[in-house]
Write a structure and sequence with these properties.
single chain; 251 residues; mainly alpha; 2 domains; two-stranded parallel sheet; two-stranded antiparallel sheet
């Protein structure tokens, strides 16, 4: 069914009309088509106990949980392996799509993979979102701190709007960038690093131990919400601090 979803069908299902618009309906439909193709192509991940379906990933995790709690990093690895092919126009290495992982000229190394910055914003967001329902279904997830902050424009915009990150060339803020531009990749990488610094400081300011208020709890109710609020104050559309040409599957 996912392979046959088109723009009109998705718009109808989501009640999209002139008074209830939704950006990127065509791209979202195409993404569902690609998800359907990925499900069909990997019965070992999506069809352990039934016909191929996205929920088949639960069967894989439930089987692993029989041997003990599932590491958050292993949950992310499964999502990257299973869903890596659905994201369009991603860098490839040895014929393998790398997903939200981009080269940056400041990174050195002898091997080709040494030049890439792994960010995986949407995949990590999905991993965070799945932890609670998985645990409620009897699949315990541990070591959530192994996941990083989300390199997206609310978190990253917060640091730019608050003057924490200042571009060496202010003209960059007036340009339209692609998601693969070193300027954007560096901004997103710095965002991840700064989020690691913010979480323990927020916990300390509230008199809590880092384990009582981990990064996962700081993201949505803290940096993401704050980034959204200051963006609204600075720009009528509440968008990021500079223009990014994106299909919506990265940021």
């Amino acid at each position: 069914m996912l392979c046959r979803v088109d723009e009109a069908a998705l718009a109808d299902a989501l009640q999209v009309h002139a008074g209830n618009s939704l950006a990127g309906v065509r791209g979202r439909a195409a993404l569902l088509n690609r998800l359907g193709e990925a499900v069909q192509a990997r019965p070992d991940l999506f069809a352990l106990a039934d016909s191929p379906r996205p929920g088949g990933l639960f069967d894989v995790l439930a089987l692993r949980a029989q041997h003990g709690p599932v590491l958050a990093a292993d949950l992310l690895e499964l999502l990257l392996t299973a869903l890596g092919t659905i994201w369009p126009d991603r860098p490839q290495l040895a014929g393998v799509s790398l997903g939200d992982c981009w080269p940056h000229p400041a990174i050195g190394g002898k091997a080709p993979q040494d030049h890439f910055v792994p960010l995986h914003k949407l995949s990590q967001w999905l991993a965070y979102s799945l932890i609670e329902p998985l645990e409620q279904a009897g699949v315990p997830i541990v070591d959530v701190a192994a996941l990083t902050g989300l390199a997206e424009y609310r978190n990253g915009g917060l640091f730019v709007d608050m003057g924490v990150l200042v571009p060496r060339d202010e003209a960059q803020l007036a340009r339209i960038h692609s998601v693969s531009d070193p300027f954007v990749v560096g901004w997103r990488a710095a965002t991840v690093a700064l989020l690691d610094e913010i979480a323990p400081q927020v916990a300390a300011s509230l008199g809590l131990a880092p384990l009582q208020l981990p990064l996962a709890r700081v993201l949505e109710g803290g940096t993401w919400a704050a980034g959204r609020r200051i963006a609204r104050e600075k720009r009528p559309d509440g968008g990021p601090p500079f223009a990014i040409s994106s299909d919506g599957t990265v940021l």
